[in-house]
Amino acid sequence: MIEKTAIVETTQIGENVSIGNFAIIKSGVILGNNVTIHPNVIIETGVTIGNNVEIFPGAYLGKRPKNSGALTREPEYEKERIIIGENCSIGPNAIIYYDVFIGKNTLIGDNVSIRERVTIGEFCVIGRGVTISYNSHIGNRTKIMDLTHITGNCEIGEDVFISTLVATTNDNTFGKGGHGKEHIKGPKIGNGAAIGANASLLPGVVIGDNAIVASSAVVTKDVPSRALVMGIPAQIVRFINDEGNR
Asked: Quick check: 183 and 203 in contact, CB under 8 A?
């Protein structure tokens, strides 16, 4: 069902699709079967929505990254496209830039912002108010909790848990070293790692597989696999054995 006040330019609409009042769906958008688009959603051309996806009010899919003149880094993206896998949920007021891929069965929470050149795997949870900056990659079954910031050029593995209010950064020179890839490097978080609430991960640090970063820790150097680190700066407290004992 398409409400009368909706503006729908695309003809590529699957079966049993619902489009709410004042939604705007541009030409070239592909909507799968059983898609629900709530009121006031805007979907720009080049967006593909898989089957059984629900998009809640106020979401905007297909924002073009632009430099107003204040940025020293010129935004880059390959294509004006977004692919949303089947069974995803996109929360109210979420903003998804172009050149983003989201795998199936992933939950994007309220007020999430996802910048260009981001990939998010399957069965992920991106909590309310999370911000994901450019060229970041998130593996399958990873959970990122409310109000966490994932910096540009960050790499996150599979089965990772990142708690609330975690900060990741990618530039130790605060912009004074230029914006080449050799200077701008976010953390790399290995498979199965867990990051506690309010932790801070500095640029370029590597968190090993199944490592644990305690709440409020400040990670200034690499963390080995299965290490538990705490403190400011974070130090190794112990290692976790194969049975998960700490």
From this structure: no
Measure the CA–CA gap between 34 and 15, rounded to whole angstroms. Answer: 6
* 3 state DSSP class of 162: strand
Measure the CA–CA gap between 137 and 123, rounded to whole angstroms. 14
Q: In angstroms, rounded to a whole number, what is the distance separating the alpha carbons of residues 198 and 216?
A: 5
Would you state the pLDDT for residue 242?
Answer: 63
Query: What whole-number distance in Å separates Cα of residue 70 and Cα of residue 64?
Result: 16
Query: What's the pTM?
Result: 0.92
C-alpha to C-alpha distance for 112 and 41, rounded to whole angstroms: 14
Average pLDDT value for residue range 7-24? 97
Q: Measuring CA to CA, which residue among 86, 32, 30, 34 is closest to residue 61?
A: 30
Domains and CATH numbers, the chain: 1-65+75-135 (2.160.10.10)
